[in-house]
Amino acid sequence: MAEDRSIETVEEGDDYYHVRYADPDEFDTIRTPDWAANAAESVVEGSEVRTGHKDGGGDDDWETQSVLVPVDEVDDEDEAKSAAEDIVEKIKE
């Protein structure tokens, strides 16, 4: 992952807290990589990581765009933020 970002916003949807680190419009490509799924699942079952890439950058220039944390697996928005931070730390290891 290319750079550290802090949480910009948290939105509660029907199924997930969408913990956003960057606006998706900043990226040319966004994907949910399999390699990040293991880290996300080890923190909160059912979580997902979306990463973004800007064209012209190297292969290592993928950044965390957002973390999706299932609303049924955490108590509130603060717990979703904490889980997202733990997931981001795990994928940096």
TrEMBL record:
Region named Disordered: 41-64, 74-93
Biased composition (Basic and acidic residues): 47-57, 80-93
Protein name, UniProt field: Uncharacterized protein
Source organism of the structure: Halopelagius inordinatus
